[in-house]
């Protein structure tokens, strides 16, 4: 795939987990990247992007922008052809779901897409949505066509009180389609990834995915890991999917992106052969009754409703559209998990 390098591409949330690999792909293709960050002077936080640009033909320029600041993306977007909106809070433990999750996700999406409406050079906007905008709980899968999620399905079970993160992603994507439908100059493509794993470009990423894997290796799950099923995608494969969504003429609509269906327990077992002798990886699955009993005590975000509707309930989805139209291919899940775990070891994230 040949990318148009005549105009810059804008990436919001540039220091994020997914954005890092996306920016690396763009730079290696020779694209000039306008990277939106909260503080352009924080060189330490951006060093991995600076290093990526130094080793690639493309160029990176940093711009100050904030999701909640109307108009703050205008300067960065000037002259850009493609806009990649990856910025959105990803956390499950919050004090105020409306303030900490929904407002940044929805208002941020509106601010970025309204800026695209004001920027004549923009021809396509790619929004990093989520499979969380398609379903809320694994129990929802049974209601999908043929018992398998596809791009026609929307999350209707999440609320501010239940699965607030999923609710925020659903509301943000709805806002994106609403704004896109009100104009006809640029087209919108949404990428809907499942759980993202794999190494980060920065040494100490803050994604919830790393918190999950950390619990596998630090002994938190030593007595058993839950059989909570997800779709899984390697961050590097997801970055390539974003590039295709931005530059392939046939890219359109929503695109579910995942390579594997697995559970937290099964992910931990992929690490046992290489790391089991040195790290307290779980050896067994935690029974659902035990998770239901102790989960809310150990983690207030693990409600019994959440446990009942997800633990032990299989997750199934159709990823054929992304394969067909974005040309996405997926690496072995064992490689993704080992690369991620080794990076965390090298960064000293497991105390000996």
Report on the architecture of this protein.
Helix content is 39%, strand content 15%. The chain is α/β, with parallel strands linked by helices and 352 residues long. The chain has a domain at 9-197 and 231-261 and 315-331: 3-Layer(aba) Sandwich (Rossmann fold). The N and C termini lie far apart (45 Å). The mean pLDDT is 94.
Strand content: 5-15%
The neighbouring-strand order within the major sheet is 3-2-1-4-5-6-10
What is the oligomer described by this structure? Answer: single chain
What's the helix-strand series?
EHEHEHEHEHEEHEEHEEHHEHHHH
Main sheet characteristics: 7 strands, parallel
Distance between the termini: 45 Å
Please identify which CATH superfamily of one domain we are dealing with: NAD(P)-binding Rossmann-like Domain
Unreliable runs, pLDDT <50, ≥5 residues?
Answer: none
The top level CATH class name of one domain: Alpha Beta
The CATH architecture designation of one domain is 3-Layer(aba) Sandwich
SS-based class: alpha/beta
Shape: globular
Organism: Tritonibacter multivorans
Keywords: Oxidoreductase
Protein name: Short chain dehydrogenase
GO molecular function: oxidoreductase activity, acting on the CH-OH group of donors, NAD or NADP as acceptor
């Amino acid at each position: 795939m040949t990318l148009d390098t005549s105009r810059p591409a804008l990436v919001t949330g540039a220091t994020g987990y997914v954005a890092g690999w996306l920016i690396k792909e763009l730079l290696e293709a020779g694209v000039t990247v306008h990277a939106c960050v909260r503080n352009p002077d924080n060189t330490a936080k951006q060093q991995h992007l600076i290093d990526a640009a130094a080793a690639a033909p493309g160029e990176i320029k940093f711009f100050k922008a904030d999701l909640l600041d109307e108009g703050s993306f205008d300067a960065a977007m000037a002259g850009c052809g493609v806009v990649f909106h990856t910025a959105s809070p990803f956390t499950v433990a919050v004090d105020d779901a409306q303030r900490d999750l929904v407002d940044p996700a929805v208002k941020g999406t509106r601010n970025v897409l309204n800026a695209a409406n004001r920027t004549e050079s923009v021809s396509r906007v790619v929004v990093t949505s989520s499979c969380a905008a398609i379903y809320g709980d694994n129990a929802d899968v049974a209601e999908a066509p043929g018992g398998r999620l596809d791009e026609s399905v929307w999350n209707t079970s999440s609320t501010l009180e239940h699965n607030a993160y999923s609710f925020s992603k659903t509301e943000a994507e709805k806002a994106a389609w609403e704004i896109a439908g009100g104009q006809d100059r640029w087209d919108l493509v949404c990428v809907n990834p499942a759980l993202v794993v794999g190494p980060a470009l920065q040494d100490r990423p803050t994604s919830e995915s790393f918190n999950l894997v950390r619990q596998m290796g630090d002994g938190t799950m030593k007595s058993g890991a839950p059989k909570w099923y997800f779709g899984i995608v390697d961050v590097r494969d997801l970055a390539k999917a974003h590039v295709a969504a931005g530059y392939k003429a046939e890219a359109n609509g929503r695109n579910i992106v995942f390579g594997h269906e697995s559970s937290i327990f099964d992910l931990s077992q992929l690490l046992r052969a290489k790391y089991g002798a040195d790290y307290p990886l779980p050896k067994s699955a935690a029974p659902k009754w035990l998770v239901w009993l102790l989960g809310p005590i150990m983690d207030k975000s693990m409600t019994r409703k959440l446990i009942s509707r997800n633990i032990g309930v299989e997750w199934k989805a159709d990823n054929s559209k992304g394969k067909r139209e974005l040309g996405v291919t997926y690496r072995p899940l064992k490689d993704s998990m080992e690369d991620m775990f080794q990076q965390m070891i090298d960064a000293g994230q497991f105390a000996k």
